Amino acid sequence: MCEHTPPCPAADATDADAARPRSACHTQGWTLLCNGVLLFDDTGEIRPDLQVIPPRRAVAAEQTEVAA
Ligand SMILES: [Zn+2]
After folding, report:
1. What's the predicted TM-score (pTM) here?
2. Sequence spans of domains, the chain
């Protein structure tokens, strides 16, 4: 459980990414946050309840520009 003050955002909070890192492997591109969220370098996430959050980078906008 989180022992930080103030406490980290819950895993289902909109700002869950703001929790402090607990462990990380930068060569593999992931960070395990204090609230149990597994955060990937491409901004994708896996929540503790195994819900997968797709990357939120603005890749779609770049692809639209190339196609146009
Ligand atoms: Zn914490």
Report:
1. 0.78
2. 16-67
